[in-house]
Amino acid sequence: MKKNILLSFLTIIAFFFSSTVSFSQFNDEIECFSIIAGKNSNEDKNVLLAHNEDDWGDLLVNWYKVPAQDHNTNEKITLQHGATIPQVDHTYSYLWIEMPGMKFSDSYMNEWGLTIASDQCKSREDKAETENGGIGYYLRRLMIERAKTAKEAVKIAGKLVETYGYNYSGRSYCIADPNEAWMMAVVKGKHWVAQRIPDNEIAVIANCYTIDKIDLSDTTNFMGSKDIVDYAIKRGWYNPEPDKEFSFKFAYAEPGIVNAIWNKPRAMAAINMLAEEKIAYGSNFPFSFVPKRGITRQDLMKVLASHLEGTDFESCSNKNPHFNVAGRVCSPGNQYGFVAELRDDLPKEIANIMWIAIKRPCIQPFIPWYFGITDIPEEFTYKNWKIALQDHFAQKDLKSKTKDKAYWSYKELADITDTDYFGLTGLIKHKKETVENNLFINQSKFEKGFIDLYNIEKNKAIKYLNLFENKIINENLADTRHALELLK
Q1: Over the stretch 57-108, which tens digit does the pLDDT of each residue have?
Q2: Residue 176's beta-bridge partner residues?
Q3: E strand map for 137-201
Q4: How does DSSP classify residue 379?
Q5: Rounded distance, CA 121 to CA 107, Å?
Q6: Which of 54, 256, 345, 469 has the most CB atoms lying inside 10 A of its own CB?
Q7: In the chain, what are the domain boundaries?
């Protein structure tokens, strides 16, 4: 034990003295985390996308179901900073997790199963080119509204970035559909690159670029800006010496970010929880890896709920595992976590699911939000989707206006348990495990009942789905508020 504590301490101290990234920058970091699993990498043979969304402050999370829409000729979309984009004739329906006022915190799943989340990845770009303020927040929404597949979404986003320029330092978008998944890295300005996750492998990303070696001639597995290498050479970020391959992540990332203490330990912990072959902390982590046998969506949920347990970076605190020098997957900034289960052999209303844990994945069960939900409980949404689309950046004093909304109960429970995590979460975690197990066991029964009804009368099947969804969502809220009453 003493040896492990000493090793952990020395590793952290050595890292801070060797890193070019300041401690003040660490305090400002947002610790989102994603996992993408190819369709042949897991027991159920489904594409899976897991994501923890991390941000700081009193932030509201809303859920909306936006319908498919037909649009008028010559209709325009005005981006946040003024640029305008022609609207398409038809946009697809989507399930939308919204955080009002936030630029990069929303997640989406559309009617084709296309699912998108993102992770901040700071770049070293300091001479970015943008048109009329460029594009940022709207990039993933335009993908979700216009694309049927992950590859199509990447092409749409790539064209938008090259036309308008990206207006944030850098970001990686995790883009998945029921058949395949892609990681798309964008850089401030007009440069981007994307890589397909192999069907039999899993990719993990913290808040740093993970795309490494690239081959844009291999259009099956890569896409990107044609001058992605030449521009790096021009800026002095890459020097092509003999036998020295170009690495996107080391060329374009802000120096120190790839190996930062808030990125590398949690990526290593996640990979070693899932991989067939373990990796060492000092190694260059792979873009993707072959998992051990029998990986399930539950394994991805366990990663999202983890705090570096069993590693040299595990917290020494006997009060709260969320607060630690080394970044952890389930962190104090968690706002929600989800595992998207994407399937193409069922009616679209139940084929694709976002298993969502609200606020803290380590104490809240992952409950299924089927794409077919149309009647979202009032306590989980604010006003309506039309107003949300229009006023996303115009919301003020949200906490005082929405104090009756469900999200604040989840946040309050997380805040209370953080005061004595190990002393207060025993029964809560037991309840979480019980709820999840029951949902997993009964999933096939519910889906069979839905299909049987769907084949007779579709409208009745949709009503059945919404009754099921409202029951489990409201029960989860009741459990959370009951736990609050016991702990206050």
Answers
A1: 889 999 999 999 999 999 999 999 999 999 999 999 999 999 999 999 999 9
A2: 115, 181
A3: 166-176, 181-189, 191-196
A4: G
A5: 17
A6: 54
A7: 2-346+386-400
